[in-house]
Design a protein that fits this description.
mainly alpha; hpI Integrase, Chain A; two-stranded antiparallel sheet; 13 helices; 5 strands; elongated
């Protein structure tokens, strides 16, 4: 039975607490038909959060408290999207999420912790729309730390970066080694690994050349520095790749063992496996490809400055670099040798 047919206006989560499907700000903006549609849409989202949102593969849901906070933060986000678009529209797009964080949430007079929790709520929301509504994946580099600090979350220490490099090289697999070494230098996002083409690699000048139309932020052409060791790994991988039939007819720089492009999940599995091999204790951290990116930003800032970090990490907005204008590629390469 749908939420509308059940005349449901709220989801009861405990005897004295419920989640209103369409808070007043949202319901006041909708006509009768839109309101019925939105209530059903929200009911499905909230139930997904509670049933499987935390780990869909294991059918592990979030606590009722997290579902409650997430639901109301996302309702406020929906209302903002409708005001921007001047119409009712669901689901929102990743571009909406980026605009909301950078143009709205970043300027709120609230703590960084609260801003970080909003980002996390939106990440859950867009994970749901991606899984159930065939929407584009929001590949997001979180700006604000929900624990209240200004430092990037879940980054690797300098020692751990070195051990991860060694574990990647110990696999005897140039594909995996080149991914990890390149990501430690270039701080690639998962979507950039997925989109990476062999033509990006400029071994002569030790850099990646990412065309504007293929960059994850679609803002400008990027020249991203690489260390000599990472360039050598890529050079070896390109030789192996040239003799691998699974790459016939594709310009993808990297494919998984089953011939598909990498996803956030497959890259996270790779990082976690190599961290185990390197005896890196998660210690409460979520170790993913972003852990490599965050550590590069952290130590590059320490070695150089925020301008170098902004350029190397390909940030569209300087606000994103707050947590860690252009400098020569060669200067960034020498800094990378120290991190």
């Amino acid at each position: 039975m749908t939420a509308k047919k059940n005349e449901r206006c709220a989801v009861q989560i405990e005897p004295a607490r419920s989640i209103t499907l369409a808070p007043k700000t949202n319901s006041d903006a909708l006509n009768e038909q839109e309101l019925a549609d939105y209530r059903e849409y929200r009911y499905e989202f909230i139930e997904w959060l509670r049933r499987e949102g935390k780990n869909p593969e294991a059918y592990e849901g979030y606590s009722d408290y997290t579902a409650y906070e997430t639901a109301y933060r996302c309702a406020r986000y929906d209302a903002w999207v409708w005001g921007l678009e001047e119409r009712y529209t669901v689901p929102p797009t990743p571009e909406h999420a980026i605009g909301y964080i950078e143009d709205e949430v970043a300027y709120r007079d609230v703590s960084n912790s609260t801003k970080g929790k909003v980002e996390e709520a939106l990440a859950r929301y867009h994970d749901w729309t991606h899984r159930t509504r065939n929407s584009a994946e929001w590949d997001h580099d979180q700006i604000f730390d929900s624990s209240g600090g200004d430092a990037p979350r879940d980054f690797l220490t300098r020692s751990e970066r070195q051990r991860l490099r060694e574990a990647a090289l110990a696999t005897g697999d140039w594909r995996e080694a080149s991914i990890i070494l390149t990501c430690l230098d270039a701080a690639l996002r998962p979507v950039e690994v997925r989109r990476a083409r062999a033509a990006w690699v400029d071994t002569d000048n030790e850099m990646l050349r990412i065309p504007r139309e293929e960059s994850s932020k679609n803002e400008q052409d990027w020249r991203t520095s690489l260390t000599t060791r990472s360039t050598n790994a890529l050079d070896e991988w390109l030789d192996v790749r040239a003799n691998d039939e699974s790459y016939d007819g594709t310009d993808a720089l990297w494919l998984t063992r089953v011939g598909t492009r990498y996803s956030s999940r497959s890259l996270s599995r790779l990082v976690k496996r190599l961290c185990r091999d390197a005896d890196i204790d998660p210690a409460g951290r979520q170790l993913t490809l972003y852990s490599l990116r965050h550590s590069t930003g952290t130590y590059l800032t320490a070695e150089r400055d925020l301008a170098a970090t902004k350029a190397q990490l390909r940030h569209k907005s300087a606000k994103t670099t707050m947590k860690y204008d252009q400098v020569p590629v060669e200067s960034r390469r020498s800094a990378l040798d120290n991190v």
